[in-house]
Amino acid sequence: MAKSNERKHRILVLGGGPGGYEAALAGAQLGADVTLVERAGVGGAAVLTDVVPSKSLIATAGAVQAVRDSGKLGVQAFVPGAHGKPVRPEIAVNLAAVNKRLLAMAGAQSVDMLRSLEDAGVRVVQGEGRLDGHSAVLVSTATGGTDFDRIEADTIVIAVGASPRELDTAKPDGERILTWKQLYNLPAIPEHLVVVGSGVTGAEFANAYRTLGSEVTLVSSREQVLPGEDPDAAAVIEREFARLGMHVMSKSRASTVERTENGVLVTLEDGRTVEGSHCLMAVGSIPNTHGLGLEEAGVQVSDSGHIKVNKVARTNVPSIYAAGDCTDFFPLASVASMQGRTAIMHALGDFVRPIDLRNVSANVFTYPEIATVGWTEHSLADATDVAKAVSHTVPLSLNPRAKMIGFTDGFVKLFAWEASGTVIGGVIVAHRASELIFSLSLAVEHRLTVDQVAAAFTVYPSMTGAITDAARALHRH
User: Fold this and answer.
1) Is Flavoprotein among this UniProt entry's keywords (predicted)?
2) Residue 53 lies inside a defined structural domain of this protein
3) Rounded CA gap, 46 and 59, in Å?
4) Residue 230 annotated as binding?
């Protein structure tokens, strides 16, 4: 126990997104004197303009999809037409109401997080900050102001996040040419949305807006959408996109996007053009590290501007840590939160386990969802110094629960070391796969064998039964 007259450890957190929020909360819970500086609102872009609103929009699209697919289960909704003949009604989506709801929900979540920090004793300052050496931060509470308060700290955590990447030849205007942060100002469903970029963000929004009623053209520079995901999983999503009537332009790279009188004109590098009412640019993100004083403080950054950190989120400067999308780690909100907690626990001398990215679970919120954890076919193919791995795939068409709910275009794939049977990774493509992956995350984190996974009871019928089926298939004598 520290004596009452001892000075508390001072922690200064720049940025209130998932990484900064968790760092500040952990610091306060461990008895430190914590100040958090955030320019927009607690929760950062993840809560206000990214994860929370986008996944809320996708949930709305999922509700629309469920109604449309209900006919497979024998559910029929009709209104009487001429001569009493049943006519199936159209599904109407009020995008203005949807956007109002999700932005209000994001704002409420931000307020809840602010209250949690204040209740824990964190001092929250709305403003912008930059490093002043390795043990202080200059904070301006006026946007673009020149007057700064200097706050000294024993530990600094940088969690300033990232912003959508913008191209000079396709400058967003917030009306017709949009980043994913600007979609929530649309008053109505776009008539024809052209999505440039087929990574996670592009695929999720293309799926959602097509389901909501937009005509969608997805411009993909790769041969297959979601190039970073399991190829079998990406193939399922491509089939779903085709079923929805989406136009996917593979091996096509956008050169310019221009605003026209009534919409947009997208010109591809091979000279072809695509006309639409709106264009979403989903071409990656850039870290918000410019002007933070990193170089002057001696903090190492990559050529892309990402802060270099180790597995406990510390930079090369011992007193400075970093978390989230501004670092060269995995850009996920869950990883940012873990980095924030890990940074504080390490700085305060608490027990800490270095973050192992092999154990990180991730999810693509398309319909169906793609959830992954651990080793994948891509990582196994790229590795040259690992033991031999085996895998087994169970199609959902064999799963009784999947048949009952009318969703069978998906699978569970399990990876294990051949010699030991230790589970090293998995892929689940299914409705709400994000809720199913946790059991595989536990298996990977705690190095369970396929026999140990197979020995656990699953409910019959259930989607999780496909996991134990895959584990049993990998049993070795």
Assistant:
1) yes
2) no
3) 16
4) no
Read off φ and ψ for residue 137, nearest 5 degrees.
-130, 135
User: For the segment 130-189, what is each residue's pLDDT rounded down to a tens digit?
Assistant: 999 999 999 997 666 677 899 999 999 999 999 999 999 999 999 999 999 999 999 999
If one counts every other C-beta atom within 10 angstroms of the C-beta of residue 127, the result is 16
Residue 270 among known ligand-binding residues: no
Q: Is residue 81 part of a domain?
A: no
pLDDT in tens, 224-264: 999 999 999 999 999 999 999 999 999 999 999 999 999 99
Please list the residues that pair with 216 across neighbouring strands: 193
Q: Is 149 annotated as a binding residue?
A: no
- 90 has binding-site annotation: no
Task: Clarify whether residues 239 and 193 are in a common domain.
Answer: yes
Task: Judge if 295 and 146 occupy the same domain.
Answer: yes
Of 388, 380, 392, 407, nearest to 463 (Cα)? 407
Report the distance separating Cα 35 and Cα 172, nearest Å. Answer: 35
CB count within 10 Å of CB 226 equals 24
Count, residues in the chain: 477
Ligand-binding site membership of 304 (annotated): no
**Bridge pairing between strands 254-259 and 247-249:** unpaired
> In terms of domains, do 155 and 35 share one?
yes
If one counts every other C-beta atom within 10 angstroms of the C-beta of residue 16, the result is: 33
**Tokens encoding 132:** 């002043």
Cis peptide before 80 (omega within 30 of 0): no
User: Could you give the CA distance from residue 42 to residue 115 in angstroms, rounded to a whole number?
Assistant: 10
Q: Is 181 annotated as a binding residue?
A: no
The response to whether 295 counts as a known ligand-binding position is no
For residues 280 and 218, give the distance between their C-alpha atoms in angstroms, rounded to a whole number. Answer: 10
81 marked as binding residue: no
56 is in an annotated binding site: no
Asked whether the beta carbons of 444 and 426 are under 8 A apart, the reply is yes
Q: Report d(CA 140, CA 129) in Å as an integer.
A: 6
pLDDT of residue 305: 97
Known binder of ligand: residue 154? no
- Our count of domains for the chain comes to 3
Residue 55 marked in a binding site: yes
